[in-house]
Amino acid sequence: MAIDFRLTAHQRELQLQSRNFARQVLSETAKAEILATPEERFAATKPAYEAMIAAGFLRKCIPVSAGGENTSLVETAIMVEELYAVNASLTLTLMGTVLGLLPLLIGGTKEQRSRLLVPFLKQAGAPLASFCATEPGGSANPASAPPGEGVRTTARLLGDRWTIDGRKSWVSSATGWDRKGADLLSVLCRTAPDVPPERGISVLVVERPTPGIVLERAIDSVGHRAHLLPCFQLEGVSVPRDNVLGSLGGGFALTAACFTGAAALVGIFAVALMRAAFDFALNFARNEKRGGILPVIEHQAVGYALADAKMAIEATRYLCWRACHGVDFQSPGADELAIEAKVYGSETAVRVLTDLMRVVGVESYDHMFPLGRLLQDALALPVFGGGNIGVRRRQLHGILKRPEYDPLMASSEAET
Ligand SMILES: Cc1cc2nc3c(=O)[nH]c(=O)nc-3n(C[C@H](O)[C@H](O)[C@H](O)COP(=O)(O)OP(=O)(O)OC[C@H]3O[C@@H](n4cnc5c(N)ncnc54)[C@H](O)[C@@H]3O)c2cc1C
Fold first, then answer.
1. Which of 21, 84, 269, 416 is most exposed, with minimal Cβ within 10 Å?
2. Is the CB of 409 under 6 A from ligand 1?
3. SS3 of 375, please?
4. Of 2-6, 38-42, 44-48, minimum mean pLDDT range
5. pLDDT tens-digit profile of 253-304?
6. How far is the CA of 202 from the centre of ligand 1 (A)?
7. Residue 387: domain span
8. Is 332 inside any structural domain?
9. Which atom of ligand 1 is nearest to the CA of 139?
10. Among protein residues, the one whose CA lies closest to atom 1 of ligand 1
11. What are the DSSP calls for 382-408, one per residue?
């Protein structure tokens, strides 16, 4: 009886609570996406983000062991599907904050967690955290050996303080609501320039308020129009010596650990966008005749296209749930499954969304309807959270090349 995809009573309650919240609160904020500048659009989402925090959605992503309410990544996936299906921008602001906290949750000491998590555990305000990895000039090769540069942001230890200098880009919410910085930044830095990257890169935590965070520009992104993606400088940002998360020099491994669960959730983002598009296309096909005699769903080609889309959605959701379950149980196949969920889910979403636009036809090209926006959001999925070509396939390739790799490992783990 171990394979059981039914939801527990708690998971079903979480699903319905998230669905209702998304419909009542997050759908309203979709209007923010039409404002003129990225910063205006992001600012307009603040009241809904505060409502998300007040409703406990951030606490629901922080493990019970750290003072939150989360007991599994599967739970997070169930919740996130509901939120992201209605508002990708705001849900990414929430999940960007969770990603920003992951180095602390995975690598932080008990003292660091109890000190730094406080604002994120309260059901008040609009706390933001960011994982600052990506840099202008590329981040697909953080562990590159010289003459490659990998991570270019540096942290130098002078006395009992680190001084961080560098530039970061595409980092969710990093400059915060007021350009002065998110409440907590986990910054990937080169802490020892002369040793191999596996031992010379660390994650340092920067707490607000700290001078030296300078916004260069808020990127006008193709999708996630009301989400803040700044390009910014860290100019002589000074933090205490003990603000290293995990071991000194262990930042590369800590980053990899954080991005495993995140990969499985990108697959769930894909499910959410496909599901929202499917709802619209199915409703359209059932009700529109487009000048013919019968609703368009009666045409076989349309029915088959909808059937193909629904199969893709179901297949992606169960792959992602399995990947999340694998991460929860630290299964031997967890890394493989999480990458597969990310790559397969993200690329399936882009295909399914364009297929569903063809089902709806020309009306899908009108921004009054949701399909164009959903496709714009979906285009991020193959290129973020580690681009599918530059990062994720390379990681999967690395797993397949291992001499001990067993292709059946991911599907043959027994219950213990
Ligand atoms: C909405 C959104 C939110 C984001 N949030 C964050 C965030 O919170 N924090 C953060 O740090 N980043 C964030 N990013 C950036 C994101 O995580 C990227 O996936 C990551 O920076 C890697 O990008 P890349 O693979 O395109 O790398 P790049 O280094 O820009 O590489 C570009 C391309 O070069 C090729 N390439 C380079 N090296 C190789 C190689 N070794 N093998 C094969 N091909 C190669 C590939 O085609 C690759 O796609 C976000 C991006 C978006 C769009």
1. 416
2. no
3. helix
4. 2-6
5. 999 999 999 999 999 999 999 999 999 999 999 999 999 999 999 999 999 9
6. 19
7. 252-411
8. yes
9. 29
10. 380
11. TTSSS-IIIIIHHHHHHHHHSTT--TT
